[in-house]
Design brief:
The protein has five helices and 16 strands. The N terminus is likely disordered. The chain is of the alpha+beta class. A hairpin with a 2-residue loop joins β11 and β12. Strands 2-3-4-1-13-16-15-14 form an eight-stranded mixed sheet, covered by helices on one side. The protein has an eight-stranded mixed sheet with strand order 6-7-8-5-9-12-11-10, with helices on one face. The chain is globular, with a radius of gyration of 18 Å.
Length: 260
């Protein structure tokens, strides 16, 4: 019996692939893209990068170790250029193979740094994604980072530390902060850039343990929600939305880790 229970727990962990939360119960959840070219994105995220389709009721996502990618068909106001989310980042086991496959599938090659084994590919709708080679990882593709571009780097990093328990550090030349499943990192911008809502990267999502209590704590600290805590018991999903002071639209969820 113990063996069966352990097997079920391990299977659930493998299917979910979202990491356990930090001391505040926060981990990376999802990236939600608003895109016009649904077929083009599916070809890249599923057929090329190998995202696994997971579902919760009618909700569908594409699972990678550390994150889920959700797509909504629409007309984005713009891509990542000129946006506070400058680009998304993943690690791949073989950069050359990833480059060949992504460009053959419709991704636009932008730049590559042979010394650091990194490259940028533009997905349809102007969404820029960085890929870094890590030969040591066991999975072909793993979620790595979200790169912000703001004028007030220290202030934004401190905000994510206070609210979400992000642990400050550095990543190469960049100031950064870690939440389980994602490295948040920053570059300086000369001006205030557009917020994410309505753009190609519409919002980022954190998975939260005990979301209702978490939201009450944020409200007590003066955080204003775009959409207050809402429960959908028929799906086993709870959500809330807020926007950080720099324009990053954020969804908080409880239940996406159960998708399979």
């Amino acid at each position: 019996m113990k063996t069966l229970i352990l097997s079920l727990l391990l299977t659930s962990t493998v299917l979910a692939q979202l990491p356990p939360g930090n001391a505040k119960g926060v981990s990376m959840g999802h990236l939600h893209l608003r895109i016009s070219d649904l077929d083009g994105h599916k070809k890249l995220w599923i057929d090329t990068l190998g995202g696994t389709v997971v579902k919760l009721g009618r909700l569908e996502a594409y699972q990678f170790p550390g994150v889920q990618v959700l797509l909504t068909k629409g007309a984005p106001a713009g891509g990542t250029d000129g946006c506070v989310v400058d680009h998304l980042g993943f690690k791949v086991k073989d950069l050359d193979e990833a480059k060949a496959k992504l460009t053959a599938a419709g991704g636009k090659f932008l730049t590559e740094n042979p010394k650091t084994r990194q490259m940028f590919i533009e997905f349809p709708d102007g969404i820029k994604v960085e890929f870094t080679e890590n030969k040591a990882q066991s999975d072909p593709v793993v979620h790595d980072h979200i790169h912000f571009a703001v004028q007030q780097i220290d202030e934004q990093r401190a905000w994510y530390e206070k609210l979400f328990g992000a642990v400050p550090g550095t990543s190469g030349p960049f100031k950064a902060a870690d939440v389980p499943g994602v490295n948040l990192r920053w570059r300086s911008s000369d001006s205030k850039l557009a917020g994410t809502k309505g753009r190609g990267v519409d919002h980022i999502g954190f998975e939260i343990t005990n979301l209702e209590a978490f939201c009450k704590n944020l409200e007590a600290e003066g955080v204003k929600f775009d959409r207050s805590y809402s429960a959908f018991p028929q799906m086993g999903l709870n959500i809330a939305f807020l926007t950080d002071p720099w324009g990053v639209y954020i969804e908080l969820t409880e239940g996406l880790a159960k998708m399979k």
